[in-house]
Amino acid sequence: MHKSLLIHNDNTPLVNLLNKELKTILFSPTVDELNNSDIDTFISTKIIPKVNELNFDIIYIKDTLSDNYIDFYGLLVAYHIRLSSNILNNDRHLVPIVILSDIDSYTINKLTPLGKILFTKNIFISHNNTNIIELFNNIALQKLSINGYINGFLKQIDIKPPKDYLSHHSITNEWAIYQWSQLLGVKEPATIKNENKISSMLYFKYLENKYNLNKKTERPDKIKTGNSKVLLIDDKCADGWEDVIIKFMQKFYNNIRFEAIGKEYKDIDNIDYIKKQVTNKIEDFDPDIILLDLRLLENIDSNEDTISNISGIKILEYIKKQYPSIQIIIFSASTDSLIMDALYKIGILGYIKKDSPTNKYLASKSSSITKLDVLIKQAIEKKYLKNIWNTQNEILKTNFLTNSKESEIFTLRDNVSTVFEILNSNISNPFKYAMLAIFKCIELLCDYYIEDKYNDAFWKDSADINIRINNSNDNSTRNYILNIIEKKTNLSKLDMEDKIQEIVCSRNFAIHTKEKSGCRGLVVKEPKSDDIIIWFKLLKNIINSINITNKMNI
Q1: H or E stretch including 506?
Q2: Please, are residues 448 and 505 in contact by the beta-carbon 8 Å criterion?
Q3: Class assignment of domain 4-156?
Q4: Dist. CA 172–CA 380, nearest whole Å
C-alpha cells in the first residue's frame, strides 16, 4: 500500500476515507491572497512547506481548489511541486501525481495552458472517486528518474511570464540579478528581496530548473588592479545590481573602488538630468571603467523605436565626447545587431548581456560573468589611456602651440592629436605607431627651430643665421632636440639625454629593423604603455618649457 498525500479543498470524497496511510493538506487561501493574484506565493509559502514535512509515495490533487471550477489551481500546485526541486527533500518532487477530475485531459488542455502537465511523465488523471486509491495501490509506481524529469517533464512544458508583469525589461533584470546572485553567492537585502519575489513565481521556478542554476563561480587568484575605479550607471542598481557587481569585484580583483548611481532614474524622464549627474559623478569619482545600462529611462525607452534616442546610447555618446579615455562596458538585454553596431561605433569596450529568461541558448550559466571578467581585465590594461589623454590635452593647451600660427606648429599640433587616437584604436601594434607619432612631433619641433641645409644646421630665429648647431656636423634629430632643450627651455639637457636617446634608438630599430650604432643598449624593441607615457610626457615637458612669446637668441 502506498503512502499517499491528498491536496484538496473539501471537494473530493477521498477526504472521508479513514486511511492512516493517507495524509491531507487543505488548500484554503484567504480572500486577500486570491484577490491579490498572489496564488503563487500562497502555494510556495503555505503548501510546499507542508508537502515537505510529510512522507509519501504518491500525491492526489483535486484539479480545482476553489469555488471557481475553471481556476485549475490543482494543476498549478502540481507544477509547483514538480518545480520545487531546490525546496523539497528526498526527491518528493519526483513522485507520481494523480489529478482528480470530472473531465478528461484533452478538455482540460483546451480550457487552460496548465493542462500540458497532464501529458508529462508520471502525471495521471483519474475520476474523482474513492476507488482511485485502491486502483493505484495495485500499480507498481516509480519516482521519475533525472532523465525522465528533464526529457519527460521539463522539455514538455513551457511556462510563460505572467501577463500582468511590469515589462520585459523588469523580468530580464530580476532574472539576471537572481542568476548572478546565485552564481556569485550574494546575500544582501536587495538580492534577497529580489530572490523572495521571484522564487515563489512558477515562471521563475521553471527557469531555475531549466537552466539548473546551482553553480558558483570561483577563481583561485585575484587580479591586482592598481587601485582601479569602477562606476555603475543603472536605474536598477538598488534592486540588486550594485550588490552583485560589488561581490563580483571582491571575488575577482584586488584594490577596486566601486560606486553606483541611477536608482532615482525610475522616476524621471529627463536625459539632461542624467547627463548632469553623470558629469558630477565622473568629476568627483574619476572612474577608469564605467558599466552602463543601455536603457536608463524605462518609460521612454520602452516606446522608443529610434536607436539614437535610447537613453543609454545618448549617455554613452555624451561620456565618450567629454571623457573619451574612460572604458565603457554596456549592460543590455538586447543583442540587436543594429544597436550593437551603434554602440561599437561610438566606442564601447564591449557589452554584457543581461540574460533574458526567454534565452534558450544559454551555453554557460556563468558566460556573462566570465565575459565581464575578460572585459574588466582589458579595461584595466587600457587604464593608461587616461594618462595619455590628459597629457595630450596639456600639450595642446600650451602657449607654444596655441599662440603660434606657423605651419610647422599646425602640423605639430595635428600629430600630437593622433597619439591618443592611435592607442585608443584597434590597430595591431599601437605602441609602435604611437612611438613613431611622438618621434615625428620631436622632428617637427626640430624643423620649427632649425634649418638644415647642405649638412649645415642653423637656428631659424637667430640674428646670425651662420651660427651652427653646437659647432658640430652632427645633424641628427637627437643632437637637434638636445640643443633645443639646452637653448630654448629651462630643462636640464643632462637629465633628459638618456630618454631622448631611448626614443631615437627605438624609432631607428622600428624603421630599419636593426639597432643603430651608438644606442648603448637603450633601444626599446617593443614599446609598452609605460614607455609611451614616459616619452609623451617628455615631449610635454619640452613644449611646456618653451617660451614662444619671447624666442631667445643664441
Answers
A1: helix 493-512
A2: no
A3: alpha beta
A4: 28
Q: Which three cell numbers stand for residue 66?
A: 476553489
Between 227-236, 280-289, 364-373, 409-418, the lowest mean confidence (pLDDT) is in: 364-373
318-321, Cβ contacts within 8 angstroms, sequence gap of 24 or more = 318/275, 318/278, 319/278, 319/282, 319/290, 319/292, 320/346, 320/347
Q: Is 26 helix (H, G, I), strand (E, B) or coil?
A: strand
Q: Cell for 428?
A: 595591431
State whether residue 553 is helix, strand or coil: coil
Helices (H), 200-267: 202-211, 241-252
Q: How far apart are CA 62 and CA 78, in angstroms?
A: 10
d(CA 260, CA 256): 13
At 304 the pLDDT is 57
pLDDT tens-digit profile of 112-151?
999 999 999 999 999 988 888 888 888 888 899 999 999 9
| pLDDT of res. 538 | 96
Max intra-chain CA distance, the chain: 123
CATH architecture of 168-382: 3-Layer(aba) Sandwich (3.40)
Residue 161, Ramachandran bin (φ over 0: left; ψ between -120 and 50: alpha; else beta): beta
d(CA 523, CA 453): 29
- What SS3 class is residue 363? coil
Please name the amino acid found at residue 255. N
Q: Give the residue range(s) of CATH 3.40.50.2300 domains in the chain.
A: 168-382
Taking each helix axis from N to C end, the angle separating 493-512 and 529-545, rounded to the nearest 10 degrees, works out to: 130
Q: What is the DSSP letter of 201?
A: S
Secondary structure letter of residue 468 according to DSSP: B
CA atoms within 13 A on the CB side of 212: 8
Say if CB 62 and CB 7 are below 8 A apart. yes
What average pLDDT does the structure give for the chain? 85
CA distance between the termini of the chain = 113
Q: Are 191 and 159 in contact (CB under 8 A)?
A: no
Question: pLDDT tens digit string along 392-436?
Answer: 999 999 988 887 777 888 899 999 999 999 999 989 999 999 999
Rounded to whole angstroms, the Cα distance separating 418 from 437 reads: 7
Output phi, psi for 282, to 5 deg: -65, -45
Q: Coil, strand, or helix at residue 289?
A: strand
- Rounded average pLDDT over 243-251: 93
The type of residue at 443 is E
pTM for the model: 0.80
Taking residue 121's Cβ as centre, other Cβ atoms within 10 Å add up to 15
